[in-house]
Structures are given as structure tokens and as C-alpha cells.
Design brief:
By secondary structure, chain A is mainly alpha-helical. In chain A, about 70% of the residues lie in helices and about 0% in strands. Chain A has one domain. Chain B has 2 domains: about 35 residues, no CATH class; about 180 residues, no CATH class. Chain B is built from 8 helices and 6 strands, in the order ααβββαβααααβαβ. The chains are: A mainly alpha, B alpha+beta.
Chain lengths: ~475, ~210
């Protein structure tokens, strides 16, 4: 029934579809969202997914243990490709992490109220993706037990300080700041909803844990007032931060002098790609989650369609950047630069390049059709393609340039080892494990925010719709 | 004083009951004159946000100051109707941003130009353009920490217990779909019957006495 209403609303261009469908009120929203975490047993699919994901996580950490024991020789990294899969995985995961804070900060500042149903979900994804991302450079340093040397800590055993002129150090600050601010944003937004969980909790342990993490929130008007100020300021601070993170990640490449890396288009190109892949991941996870947890009235087709439009827009920006890179390589008249790009498209890694182009540029173009934008299985298929494509984009950037630098005598061909592949798989396991735990124990829709945008929620009528 | 009262209330609830009348509480060698009211305050329950805002405005206009309104989500104009219009939080965040930015730059300057000078391609030791990204990140980081921790500190959170949770209706529904207004018994204007009559005139769904324990 509810889906039928959604279709009708979507097809009627004269009025904006409501943010939530079905007869929703304050009570029913609380029920719908809280029930997910309160039911004694999650759906069977959750157990199956958790079994797979947690096994992969276990494998990931075992492989990290093996890496610490054996050294980085277990990877395919070798001269001239020292930045191989670990860095590709790092850039990929940081990119995935861009959707959450974009939705919570930038869409908040633009008063895109539809974001309220999906922001919690996407913020959680951001944090888990940043955790996966942070692991890779951490283990890529080789001697993992010295990873803290990345930070400017006064250390007696080193008697040295990091070089602040290096983009690699900028990256340490950018990613750790991004992780911290995303965590703050996510947690602060969750306090009122955790208070709801606390008030509804029946078991002693649940009541105590939700009680501790909701910090004694009462919902007083003065508290809400300061909370909203803090939320707005945090959004204003996080908005430039989102844009800065992948900008700085792109500096890791752009500030070097390697052909194919040393380009000024990298920052905007990386940011667009990050938003693109992040939104694709949100849609990939959102479609099954709303199915299994009965959230179709809160996360409506309108939400999914809006996200698909953003994927289409950012995908086209990425496609434009691909074309512009070629144009600039030709226009610059620089032989090395021209070679780097011809080599990308027609050299030994052409298979990766064309995988990237077809997944990133062609697949999302199908979103021009409303039918594709509003059919769940079609959007999931396209979004999985986008994620594959975005992983390959980082592979192409990283590997092709390194394997063909200025000196033909140092050229090589990089291939990953089995352990490289398993570690990438393992990082997906970690991501999904954290995500499934989040779905099981925490409020996956921002109840208090959705409530505030219900038609009768505010004293002066329903001008929100 | 306030802290002592709270300690007494939480650690020895029975002590309050016994010692209530003399309004002097002796506990573990401490002695305090405690201005204990018979109860924390009067709590009115509403079902509609409009009613709560109207009630809050009326009570505020009547000159009550120790009044607070509670809602499951931010209601527009509610805190203003209680006369709460300004917060120091934006100033705190600005201070945080300055501390972060200046601190971040100074850290880099001190490391790169004073403590461990490195000649990188003949660039100046204080190569400020290369220090901008980290200065920016530190600005955002410290400002964001000030925003969240400042919000919690100004709100007096975390707060392990609040007497309002002794009212089951508040504890169960305040974060779901009910709207509450409390007038504290220590308000200078508070009067057992007159305040109750005022609340009754606002047509709440119910009125509760909020017990201390």
C-alpha cells in the first residue's frame, strides 16, 4: 500500500512527495526504528551476513598478524610499484567515507530535509569506511609497531620530527581529523535517539548501556537549543572538511612529479569521485536494509531517487575529469604526460582502464531513465558497478603511473599476490561487520530529526513540505 | 550546596525522608542546611507541541524563572518562549577555532624551523604555504571538539540522574511523543496551589508532582 502511494506521489510533478509515507506520527516513527534494535532476534539474513562478514574480518586480522610477522614481502609491492594495493584500498575506502558527512553537513546547510531519513545510516558508513581506510596506510608502513611515528610526538627513540611540508603528513592530519569530526557528528546526532532507546529499554544491561551513552539527555528546550546550535556549527565546520579530505588525499599524488599524477585537476576530480562512490555504497546498503528492517515508509523511493540523481551528476563529473585529463595531456605538449595517458588506455593496464570507464562513466548514465532510478534491484546493480569502477580508478591512477615512470629501464608490471586480494576482501568483511552491528544495536534512522519534519510537528503548520 | 544536596539525594535516599523536616541533613560527618522542597516541581504533560509552546510562553510571562520545557525533538520557538535566546556556544567554537588554527601553525613552525630544521629543496624553513593544510585541519578539529564538548558542558551533561525520571510518564514518553513543562518548586514565585492552578488553566493532559526520589 505504502509503495503504491510513493509511486503515485513520485509520478505527480505538481506536488512534492512527502518525506515519509504511510500514516506516520511521532509514536509510529519511534516504534518502527526502535523495534529494529529491540526485537530479540534479527532476521535470518542478518545472521547469514554476519557469519560471512565476521569470518572475513577474522581473516583480515589474521593476515595483518601474518604481515607483522613476515613483513611486507607477502604483498605484490615491488620496484617500481611500491604504492600498490594498500594505497589503492586506502584511497578507495576514504572515498566511500565521503557520503556520510556530505549528507549530514552539506545537505543540512542546503536545507535538504530529505536527508534526515538517511543521514544516520550514511554517517555510520563513513566512520566504518574511515576505519578500514586508516588500517591500510597503518600497515603499509611496514614496521606497524612504529606507526605512531606518523604523528608529531616527542619521541626519545627517534629524535626526529615528521616533515610538515610533505603531503603524506597532511594526509595523516586530514584523515584523523575527518575520522574524529565524523565520529563527533554521528555520536552527537545519536544522543537524543539513544535517550529514546534508554527510555524504552526493558533489560537491565540495555538500560544501563543506553543510559550511559545517552548522557542523561532529557530533551529540555534549552538543551535542544544549544544542541541545534552545535549541530549547525558542526555542519558548517564539516562541510569544508569533507571537501578538504579527498583534496589532501589527491595531493599525495598531485604534489609529486610523476606523469599522470602531477595535475591540478586532481582535487576536484577526487572529491567528485569520492562523493560518487560514497553515494553508490549508501544505495547498495540502503536498499537491502530498508527491505529487511521494514523502513520503506521512512526511506522512501524519493530518497533513493534523489541519491541516484546525485550519483548520476557526480558520475558525469568524473567522466568529464577523465576526458579533461586526456585533453590537458595532449594540450600541454609534454611527451611524458601524453605517454602516461596513452599508456593508461592502451598499455598493459588497458583492461583496468576500460573496466573503470565502463563502470564509472557508462553504467550510471542509465540513471537518466526514471525506471532505472526507481527500481531497487537495478540501482543496486549499477551501484555495485560504480564501486568496482571506483576501486579500479584508484588502481589505474596508482599503478599505471608508477609502473611507467620517466626511465624505461625501471619499468615493470605489477601483479598482486593472493594475500593482497584477501586483505581487500577482509576489509570489506570488517566494514560489513561493523555495519551489521550498527543495524542491530543502534538507532539507524535519526528519529528526532525525522519527527521534527513531520507535517504537524512544528507549531506553525506544515510549511516544511 | 547544590552538590551536597545532590550527594545526599542519591547516596542515601532514606536519609532525606528521615531528616526532611528539620531541613538539616547530616551524613558522613557533613552537615548542610538544605533548602529541600517537598518535591522537585510540578510537571504538566501535553500531547501537542503548540500547547507546550503556548504554556511555556504563559508561564514565562507570569514571571516564573525556574521553568523548563521538554520535547522529543527540537520544537521551533520553544526555548525562545522561555526567554532563552542567546547561547555562549558560538563564541566558544570561535575560540576553539582560533586555538586550533594558531596551535596548528605554531606546532609546524616550531618543529620545522626551530626544533628540527630541515632544508628541503632550499625552501625557507618557515614555508607557510605548505603549512596551510594542517593549520586548516587543526582549526576544524579543535572547533568541532569545542562545539560538541561545549554543548555538553553548557547543558550540564552527562548528568547521571534527574528527578524528572521519577515520574514514569516522563521517563517513558518524554523522548517519544509527549511534551512536558516543569515549574521547579524552588522558583521564587512558586506557590503550592497558585502554581498548580496556573498549570491547570493551561489545559494539560495531566499534572504530576515530581518526587525527589
Amino acid at each position: 500500500m505504502a509503495t503504491a502511494t510513493t509511486e503515485l506521489d513520485l509520478n505527480d510533478p505538481r506536488r512534492r512527495p512527502p518525506l515519509v509515507t504511510g500514516e506516520q506520527d511521532l509514536h509510529s516513527i519511534t516504534e518502527t526504528v526502535s523495534k529494529i534494535a529491540e526485537r530479540p532476534k534479527p532476521p535470518r539474513a542478518w545472521y547469514v551476513a554476519f557469519a560471512i562478514a565476521s569470518s572475513l574480518t577474522l581473516m583480515f586480522f589474521s593476515l595483518i598478524g601474518y604481515l607483522v610477522y613476515e613483513g611486507t614481502g607477502i604483498w605484490g609491492n615491488n620496484s617500481p610499484v611500491f604504492w600498490a594495493w594498500p594505497i589503492v584500498n586506502f584511497v578507495f575506502w576514504v572515498g566511500i567515507g565521503h557520503a556520510g558527512t556530505l549528507i549530514s553537513a552539506i545537505l543540512f546547510l542546503f536545507r535538504q530535509n530529505w536527508r534526515t531519513s538517511i543521514n544516520r545510516f550514511a554517517e555510520a558508513m563513513t566512520i566504518f569506511a574511515v576505519i578500514c581506510a586508516a588500517i591500510f596506510p597503518g600497515i603499509h608502513v611496514g614496521r606497524v609497531w612504529f606507526a605512531y611515528w606518523l604523528f608529531p610526538l616527542p619521541s626519545t627513540d627517534l629524535a626526529m620530527w615528521p616533515n610538515f611540508r610533505s603531503p603524506l603528513l597532511w594526509d595523516v592530519f586530514a584523515v584523523s581529523t575527518y575520522g574524529t569530526v565524523s565520529l563527533l557528528f554521528w555520536y552527537m546526532g545519536m544522543i537524543p535517539d539513544l535517550a529514546t532507546f534508554r527510555d524504552r529499554a526493558t533489560g537491565k544491561i540495555r538500560k544501563m548501556l543506553y543510559g550511559i551513552f545517552s548522557l542523561g539527555w532529557t530533551g529540555s528546550a534549552r538543551h535542544w537549543s544549544r544542541y541545534e546550535i552545535a549541530y549547525g556549527l558542526l555542519a558548517a565546520l564539516a562541510a569544508p572538511l569533507v571537501l578538504s579530505v579527498h583534496t589532501i588525499v589527491s595531493f599525495d599524488f598531485a604534489v609529486s612529479q610523476l606523469p599522470g599524477w602531477h595535475t591540478t585537476i586532481f582535487p576536484p576530480y577526487f572529491v567528485a569521485g569520492a562523493v560518487f562512490s560514497g553515494f553508490a555504497m549508501v544505495v547498495t546498503l540502503m536498499v537491502p536494509a530498508r527491505e529487511f528492517f521494514g523502513l520503506k515508509d521512512l526511506v522512501t523511493m524519493r530518497h533513493l531517487e534523489n541519491m541516484n540523481k546525485i550519483i548520476l551528476a557526480t558520475g558525469s563529473m568524473v567522466g568529464y575529469a577523465y576526458a579533461m585529463e586526456f585533453f590537458i595531456a595532449w594540450y600541454s605538449g609534454n611527451g611524458y604526460e601524453q605517454f602516461a595517458f596513452v599508456n593508461r588506455a592502451f598499455g598493459p593496464y588497458a583492461w583496468a582502464y576500460w573496466t573503470m570507464v565502463s563502470c564509472n562513466l557508462l553504467a550510471p548514465q542509465l540513471f537518466w531513465f526514471r525506471k532505472v532510478r526507481t527500481t531497487p534491484w537495478m540501482m543496486v546493480v549499477i551501484c555495485i558497478f560504480v564501486n568496482i569502477g571506483m576501486w579500479f580508478e584508484r588502481f589505474v591512477i596508482c599503478i599505471t603511473s608508477l609502473s611507467r615512470d620517466f626511465l624505461p629501464s625501471s619499468w615493470g608490471y605489477y601483479s598482486p599476490t593472493k594475500i593482497d586480494v584477501l586483505m581487500l576482501l577482509g576489509s570489506f568483511g570488517l566494514f560489513f561487520t561493523l555495519f551489521l552491528l550498527f543495524c542491530r544495536y543502534l538507532p539507524i534512522v535519526a528519529m528526532s530529526e525525522v519527527k521534527a519534519y513531520l507535517p504537524d510537528a512544528q507549531p506553525h503548520g506544515d510549511d516544511h513540505h | 550546596m547544590h552538590r551536597l544536596r545532590r550527594t545526599v539525594r542519591q547516596s542515601r535516599p532514606d536519609a532525606i525522608q528521615e531528616n526532611f523536616n528539620p531541613s538539616i541533613v547530616r551524613i558522613q560527618g557533613f552537615q548542610a542546611v538544605v533548602p529541600l522542597q517537598p518535591y522537585f516541581g510540578l510537571l504538566a504533560e501535553f500531547t501537542e507541541p503548540e500547547d507546550l509552546v503556548a504554556a511555556a510562553r504563559t508561564v514565562h510571562e507570569q514571571g516564573y524563572v525556574r521553568v523548563e520545557a521538554y520535547s522529543p525533538y527540537p520544537v521551533e520557538g520553544l526555548s525562545e518562549s522561555l526567554g532563552f535566546t542567546r547561547s555562549r556556544l558560538p563564541l566558544l567554537v570561535l575560540i576553539g577555532a582560533f586555538l586550533g588554527g594558531i596551535g596548528g601553525y605554531c606546532l609546524q613552525y616550531w618543529v620545522a624551523a626551530v626544533e628540527y630544521p630541515l632544508n628541503i629543496g632550499g625552501r625557507p624553513l618557515n614555508s607557510w604555504p605548505a603549512f596551510i593544510p594542517i593549520t586548516f585541519e587543526c582549526t576544524i578539529l579543535v572547533a568541532a571538539l569545542f562545539a560538541v564538548l561545549g554543548m555538553l558542558a553548557l547543558n550540564g551533561l552527562p548528568q547521571p540522574h534527574h528527578p524528572l525520571f521519577n515520574v514514569p510518564e516522563f521517563a517513558n514518553y518524554a523522548s517519544t511523543d509527549r511534551f512536558f513543562l516543569v515549574i521547579r518548586a524552588d522558583d521564587p514565585q512558586f506557590h503550592e496551589t497558585r502554581t498548580r492552578e496556573l498549570l491547570e488553566s493551561l489545559k494539560p493532559m495531566a499534572i504530576y508532582e515530581v518526587p525527589w526520589v
